[in-house]
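Lab notebook: predicted structure, single chain.

Context: the supervisor wants predicted structures on file for every construct in the current expression panel, including those that have not yet been purified. This is the next one on the list. No modifications to the sequence; it matches the entry in the shared construct table.
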Amino acid sequence: MAIPATQKQRESPRALAPSEFLKELSAELASGDVRLPSFPDIAQRVQRALEDPRATPAQVARVIGIDAALAARVLRLANSAFLNPSAKPITELQQAVNRLGHQLVRCTAVSFALQQMNAGDGIAALRPQLQELWRKGTLVASIAYVLARETRAANPDEALVAGLMHNIGSLYITVRAHQHGAVLGADDAATGVLSNGHPRIAGAILGHWKFAPSIVSAVSNQNASNLPTGAAGLADVLIASISLVPCVFFRGLLDETVTAVAAFQRLALDTTECTRLLRTTARQIKSLHSALAG
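Prediction complete. Output recorded below exactly as produced.
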Protein backbone atom coordinates (compact mmCIF):
# COMPACT_ATOMS: atom_id res chain seq x y z
CA MET A 1 0.00 0.00 0.00
CA ALA A 2 1.37 3.40 -1.00
CA ILE A 3 2.15 5.85 1.79
CA PRO A 4 0.55 9.28 1.27
CA ALA A 5 3.02 12.10 0.62
CA THR A 6 1.90 13.97 3.73
CA GLN A 7 2.64 10.93 5.86
CA LYS A 8 6.07 10.52 4.24
CA GLN A 9 6.87 14.13 5.08
CA ARG A 10 6.01 13.54 8.73
CA GLU A 11 8.25 10.50 9.03
CA SER A 12 11.65 10.86 10.72
CA PRO A 13 14.71 10.66 8.46
CA ARG A 14 15.97 7.12 8.02
CA ALA A 15 18.97 5.96 10.06
CA LEU A 16 22.11 5.12 8.10
CA ALA A 17 24.47 2.22 8.71
CA PRO A 18 27.74 4.18 9.17
CA SER A 19 29.98 1.57 7.50
CA GLU A 20 27.73 1.43 4.42
CA PHE A 21 27.45 5.21 4.28
CA LEU A 22 31.24 5.63 4.41
CA LYS A 23 31.61 3.00 1.69
CA GLU A 24 29.19 4.98 -0.48
CA LEU A 25 31.07 8.24 0.11
CA SER A 26 34.40 6.57 -0.63
CA ALA A 27 33.04 5.33 -3.97
CA GLU A 28 31.83 8.84 -4.83
CA LEU A 29 35.20 10.36 -4.02
CA ALA A 30 37.11 7.66 -5.91
CA SER A 31 35.21 8.72 -9.02
CA GLY A 32 36.12 12.38 -8.41
CA ASP A 33 32.58 13.26 -7.35
CA VAL A 34 32.95 15.78 -4.49
CA ARG A 35 29.49 17.11 -3.64
CA LEU A 36 29.48 20.14 -1.38
CA PRO A 37 26.41 22.38 -1.67
CA SER A 38 26.77 26.04 -2.61
CA PHE A 39 30.55 25.76 -2.93
CA PRO A 40 31.42 29.24 -4.23
CA ASP A 41 32.64 29.53 -7.80
CA ILE A 42 35.50 31.81 -6.73
CA ALA A 43 37.21 28.93 -4.87
CA GLN A 44 37.04 26.78 -7.98
CA ARG A 45 38.48 29.62 -10.09
CA VAL A 46 41.39 30.03 -7.68
CA GLN A 47 41.95 26.28 -7.74
CA ARG A 48 42.09 26.24 -11.55
CA ALA A 49 44.54 29.16 -11.57
CA LEU A 50 46.82 27.42 -9.06
CA GLU A 51 46.77 24.21 -11.10
CA ASP A 52 47.98 26.03 -14.21
CA PRO A 53 51.80 25.81 -14.24
CA ARG A 54 51.92 28.89 -16.46
CA ALA A 55 49.95 31.07 -14.01
CA THR A 56 51.98 33.87 -12.44
CA PRO A 57 51.37 35.32 -8.95
CA ALA A 58 49.87 38.37 -10.70
CA GLN A 59 47.35 36.18 -12.54
CA VAL A 60 46.42 34.29 -9.35
CA ALA A 61 46.02 37.65 -7.59
CA ARG A 62 43.66 38.88 -10.29
CA VAL A 63 41.44 35.82 -9.83
CA ILE A 64 41.38 36.32 -6.05
CA GLY A 65 40.57 40.01 -6.55
CA ILE A 66 37.26 39.07 -8.18
CA ASP A 67 35.85 38.52 -4.68
CA ALA A 68 36.50 41.40 -2.27
CA ALA A 69 35.87 39.26 0.81
CA LEU A 70 38.34 36.57 -0.28
CA ALA A 71 40.89 39.24 -1.21
CA ALA A 72 40.54 40.75 2.27
CA ARG A 73 41.01 37.30 3.86
CA VAL A 74 44.20 36.66 1.87
CA LEU A 75 45.62 40.07 2.78
CA ARG A 76 44.70 39.65 6.45
CA LEU A 77 46.48 36.29 6.65
CA ALA A 78 49.53 37.61 4.78
CA ASN A 79 49.73 40.49 7.29
CA SER A 80 49.33 38.31 10.39
CA ALA A 81 52.16 38.48 12.90
CA PHE A 82 53.17 34.89 12.16
CA LEU A 83 53.46 35.20 8.40
CA ASN A 84 54.71 38.80 8.28
CA PRO A 85 57.17 39.13 11.19
CA SER A 86 58.65 42.31 9.70
CA ALA A 87 55.26 44.02 10.29
CA LYS A 88 55.72 45.91 7.01
CA PRO A 89 52.15 46.15 5.65
CA ILE A 90 51.33 44.09 2.57
CA THR A 91 48.73 45.97 0.57
CA GLU A 92 48.94 44.31 -2.86
CA LEU A 93 47.37 40.93 -3.55
CA GLN A 94 50.35 39.86 -5.65
CA GLN A 95 52.63 40.48 -2.66
CA ALA A 96 50.26 38.47 -0.49
CA VAL A 97 50.27 35.55 -2.96
CA ASN A 98 54.08 35.61 -2.99
CA ARG A 99 54.17 35.69 0.80
CA LEU A 100 51.72 32.83 1.32
CA GLY A 101 52.71 30.51 -1.51
CA HIS A 102 50.38 28.21 -3.44
CA GLN A 103 49.49 25.84 -0.59
CA LEU A 104 48.39 28.58 1.79
CA VAL A 105 46.54 30.47 -0.96
CA ARG A 106 44.71 27.24 -1.89
CA CYS A 107 43.94 26.59 1.78
CA THR A 108 42.67 30.15 2.28
CA ALA A 109 40.39 29.89 -0.75
CA VAL A 110 38.99 26.52 0.36
CA SER A 111 38.50 27.64 3.97
CA PHE A 112 36.79 30.83 2.80
CA ALA A 113 34.52 28.75 0.55
CA LEU A 114 33.65 26.40 3.39
CA GLN A 115 32.65 29.31 5.60
CA GLN A 116 30.54 30.78 2.81
CA MET A 117 28.96 27.37 2.28
CA ASN A 118 28.17 27.16 6.00
CA ALA A 119 26.22 30.41 5.71
CA GLY A 120 23.94 29.05 2.98
CA ASP A 121 20.25 28.51 3.61
CA GLY A 122 20.30 24.93 2.34
CA ILE A 123 22.17 23.62 5.38
CA ALA A 124 21.04 26.09 8.04
CA ALA A 125 20.16 23.24 10.41
CA LEU A 126 23.79 22.07 10.34
CA ARG A 127 25.31 25.47 11.01
CA PRO A 128 26.18 24.88 14.71
CA GLN A 129 27.91 21.56 13.89
CA LEU A 130 29.81 23.02 10.95
CA GLN A 131 30.86 26.10 12.90
CA GLU A 132 32.20 23.89 15.69
CA LEU A 133 34.16 21.81 13.16
CA TRP A 134 35.56 25.03 11.69
CA ARG A 135 36.45 26.42 15.12
CA LYS A 136 38.37 23.27 16.00
CA GLY A 137 40.10 23.26 12.62
CA THR A 138 41.42 26.79 13.07
CA LEU A 139 42.63 26.01 16.59
CA VAL A 140 44.40 22.81 15.50
CA ALA A 141 45.99 24.75 12.63
CA SER A 142 47.27 27.45 14.99
CA ILE A 143 48.78 24.90 17.38
CA ALA A 144 50.26 22.89 14.49
CA TYR A 145 51.99 25.95 13.06
CA VAL A 146 53.63 26.73 16.41
CA LEU A 147 54.52 23.09 17.08
CA ALA A 148 56.13 22.63 13.67
CA ARG A 149 58.09 25.84 14.05
CA GLU A 150 59.30 25.04 17.57
CA THR A 151 60.17 21.36 16.98
CA ARG A 152 61.36 21.81 13.36
CA ALA A 153 59.73 18.45 12.68
CA ALA A 154 57.75 19.78 9.68
CA ASN A 155 57.25 22.82 7.50
CA PRO A 156 55.11 25.25 9.55
CA ASP A 157 53.03 26.35 6.54
CA GLU A 158 52.23 22.73 5.66
CA ALA A 159 51.38 22.05 9.31
CA LEU A 160 48.98 24.99 9.31
CA VAL A 161 47.24 23.73 6.16
CA ALA A 162 47.04 20.16 7.50
CA GLY A 163 45.52 21.42 10.75
CA LEU A 164 42.96 23.60 9.03
CA MET A 165 41.90 20.79 6.70
CA HIS A 166 42.18 17.86 9.16
CA ASN A 167 38.43 17.54 9.81
CA ILE A 168 37.19 18.24 6.28
CA GLY A 169 36.17 14.57 6.23
CA SER A 170 33.86 15.06 9.21
CA LEU A 171 32.37 18.13 7.57
CA TYR A 172 31.81 16.24 4.34
CA ILE A 173 30.19 13.30 6.14
CA THR A 174 27.87 15.69 8.03
CA VAL A 175 26.83 17.56 4.89
CA ARG A 176 26.33 14.46 2.75
CA ALA A 177 24.21 12.78 5.43
CA HIS A 178 22.03 15.90 5.46
CA GLN A 179 21.78 15.81 1.66
CA HIS A 180 20.65 12.19 1.91
CA GLY A 181 17.85 13.36 4.22
CA ALA A 182 19.27 10.90 6.72
CA VAL A 183 20.53 10.88 10.28
CA LEU A 184 23.60 9.04 11.48
CA GLY A 185 23.26 6.87 14.55
CA ALA A 186 24.69 8.33 17.75
CA ASP A 187 25.53 5.00 19.43
CA ASP A 188 29.13 4.17 20.38
CA ALA A 189 29.63 1.76 17.47
CA ALA A 190 28.49 4.36 14.92
CA THR A 191 30.68 7.05 16.49
CA GLY A 192 33.67 4.72 16.31
CA VAL A 193 33.13 3.88 12.65
CA LEU A 194 32.75 7.54 11.66
CA SER A 195 35.69 8.60 13.83
CA ASN A 196 37.93 6.05 12.15
CA GLY A 197 36.55 6.77 8.68
CA HIS A 198 36.73 10.54 8.41
CA PRO A 199 40.53 10.81 7.84
CA ARG A 200 40.29 8.54 4.79
CA ILE A 201 37.45 10.66 3.41
CA ALA A 202 39.46 13.83 4.13
CA GLY A 203 42.51 12.45 2.34
CA ALA A 204 40.43 11.66 -0.75
CA ILE A 205 38.95 15.17 -0.81
CA LEU A 206 42.33 16.89 -0.39
CA GLY A 207 43.83 14.69 -3.10
CA HIS A 208 40.98 15.70 -5.40
CA TRP A 209 41.65 19.37 -4.58
CA LYS A 210 45.37 18.93 -5.43
CA PHE A 211 46.84 19.60 -2.01
CA ALA A 212 50.47 18.53 -1.54
CA PRO A 213 50.96 14.75 -1.06
CA SER A 214 52.62 15.34 2.33
CA ILE A 215 49.51 17.15 3.57
CA VAL A 216 47.18 14.49 2.16
CA SER A 217 49.26 11.79 3.87
CA ALA A 218 49.33 13.55 7.24
CA VAL A 219 45.56 14.18 7.25
CA SER A 220 44.84 10.62 6.12
CA ASN A 221 47.02 9.21 8.92
CA GLN A 222 45.84 11.43 11.78
CA ASN A 223 44.36 8.39 13.59
CA ALA A 224 47.07 5.90 12.63
CA SER A 225 49.07 4.12 15.30
CA ASN A 226 51.78 3.05 12.83
CA LEU A 227 52.75 5.77 10.38
CA PRO A 228 54.01 5.08 6.85
CA THR A 229 57.72 5.62 6.18
CA GLY A 230 58.42 9.29 5.54
CA ALA A 231 55.08 10.47 6.96
CA ALA A 232 56.07 10.78 10.60
CA GLY A 233 57.15 14.44 10.83
CA LEU A 234 54.05 16.27 9.61
CA ALA A 235 51.65 13.54 10.73
CA ASP A 236 53.12 13.57 14.24
CA VAL A 237 52.77 17.36 14.43
CA LEU A 238 49.12 17.06 13.36
CA ILE A 239 48.35 14.20 15.77
CA ALA A 240 49.97 16.07 18.67
CA SER A 241 48.16 19.30 17.79
CA ILE A 242 44.75 17.59 17.72
CA SER A 243 45.55 16.01 21.08
CA LEU A 244 46.55 19.37 22.59
CA VAL A 245 43.25 21.13 21.87
CA PRO A 246 41.62 20.21 25.22
CA CYS A 247 44.89 21.04 27.00
CA VAL A 248 44.76 24.64 25.74
CA PHE A 249 41.75 25.11 28.03
CA PHE A 250 42.59 22.58 30.78
CA ARG A 251 46.33 22.31 31.40
CA GLY A 252 45.70 19.57 33.96
CA LEU A 253 45.10 17.16 31.06
CA LEU A 254 48.62 17.58 29.66
CA ASP A 255 50.42 14.82 31.53
CA GLU A 256 47.83 12.17 30.67
CA THR A 257 47.67 13.36 27.03
CA VAL A 258 51.43 13.40 26.46
CA THR A 259 51.82 9.97 28.04
CA ALA A 260 49.02 8.40 26.00
CA VAL A 261 49.93 9.75 22.54
CA ALA A 262 53.05 8.30 20.90
CA ALA A 263 53.49 11.30 18.61
CA PHE A 264 54.79 13.36 21.55
CA GLN A 265 57.56 10.83 22.19
CA ARG A 266 58.54 10.84 18.51
CA LEU A 267 58.67 14.64 18.63
CA ALA A 268 60.75 14.51 21.84
CA LEU A 269 58.10 16.48 23.74
CA ASP A 270 57.41 15.73 27.39
CA THR A 271 54.85 17.32 29.69
CA THR A 272 57.26 20.00 30.88
CA GLU A 273 58.16 21.05 27.33
CA CYS A 274 54.52 21.07 26.21
CA THR A 275 53.58 23.21 29.21
CA ARG A 276 56.34 25.66 28.31
CA LEU A 277 55.29 25.75 24.66
CA LEU A 278 51.64 26.41 25.43
CA ARG A 279 52.55 29.11 27.95
CA THR A 280 55.07 30.99 25.80
CA THR A 281 53.08 30.78 22.57
CA ALA A 282 49.56 31.32 23.96
CA ARG A 283 49.31 34.86 22.56
CA GLN A 284 50.69 33.78 19.19
CA ILE A 285 48.24 30.87 18.94
CA LYS A 286 45.38 33.22 19.79
CA SER A 287 46.53 35.76 17.17
CA LEU A 288 46.86 33.17 14.40
CA HIS A 289 43.57 31.52 15.40
CA SER A 290 41.83 34.90 15.02
CA ALA A 291 43.41 35.51 11.58
CA LEU A 292 42.37 32.07 10.33
CA ALA A 293 38.85 32.19 11.71
CA GLY A 294 38.10 35.36 9.77
